[in-house]
Amino acid sequence: MVTSVVVASLGAAGLLWVVIALTWRRLVNAIGIEGLTAIGLISSLHFVVSYASRLAGNVIASVTGPFYIFIAGIGNEGLTSTLMAALVVLVPRPGVVTLSSLTVFLLNATFTGQFGVADVLFVSVSIALAEGCLAATGVTSTSSFRMPRQRPTLSMLLTAAGAIGLANGGTLFAQYCLSQALYRLYFPLWYVVAVSLVTGVAYGAVGAAAGTLLGFQLRRTAP
After folding, report:
1. How many Å apart are CA 122 and CA 181, to the nearest integer?
2. Interval 79-94: pLDDT, tens
3. To bridge 201 with a disulfide, which of 2, 40, 157, 169 should be the other Cys (CB 3.0-4.6 Å)?
4. 181: buried, middle or exposed (CB in 10 Å: 19+, 13-18, 0-12)?
5. Model confidence at 198, in pLDDT bands (50, 70, 90)?
6. Phi, psi dihedral angles at 152 (to 5 degrees)
7. Is the pLDDT score of 1 beyond 80?
8. Hey, what's the torsion of the CAs at 120, 176, 169, 105, to 10 degrees?
């Protein structure tokens, strides 16, 4: 199973960069200046939250060991999913998650020096899954989230939460499999599944639901 996930991850990452190369200019033009500004602001906040969560996680890990992830995941996955969902509601177009994730990645590389082939692969898989889930569920590929609304419908709330939650869970599972193949870091299957479902799907979905509501609140203040 690990081999299949690794091969699928490599394929998804390769396909992502092909799509980016072919559609980059068109996607950026469609997002516009206001959208790019929102991406820059929220991505910076995303970096601050994820960096602070990582530092807190290192402290917690000294006490709880490998189970620290279930506490640190509240920030790493829950709060970052809130920001992602808010951004997608403000700018519900393909490519928004790509630009945001690459911005966070470059900020992290600048401040921590963490920039390697494996890191590029991890972020590529994360982007591919997030963009795919959001497009497949119609969040960024249809006009439902682009129409003027005061508040989201229950269907929109569940759709955004489900898409981001599944993308987060899939990303975590794929990253554990890639870590096993690249670094020979082995984890019990039950632990990987638990982390993917709890911190990825559950925390991500709850955070995304809150972010969807936040995004519609922010829309009211937008010019």
Report:
1. 13
2. 999 999 999 999 999 9
3. 169
4. middle
5. very high
6. -75, 150
7. no
8. -20
Buried b (16+ CB within 10 A) or exposed e, 35-63: beebbeebbeebbebbbebeebbeebeee
Smallest CA-to-CA distance from 100 within 147, 134, 148 is with: 134
Question: 82 — phi, psi (to 5°)?
Answer: -60, -45
**H-state helical runs in the chain:** 2-64, 69-73, 80-90, 96-112, 117-136, 154-183, 189-195, 203-221
Mean pLDDT to the nearest integer, 4-17: 85
* Amino acid symbol at 79: L
Average pLDDT of span 102-119: 85
Give every CB contact of residue 136 below 8 A, 6+ residues apart in sequence. 163
Asked if residues 65 and 193 have their Cβ atoms less than 8 Å apart, the reply is: no
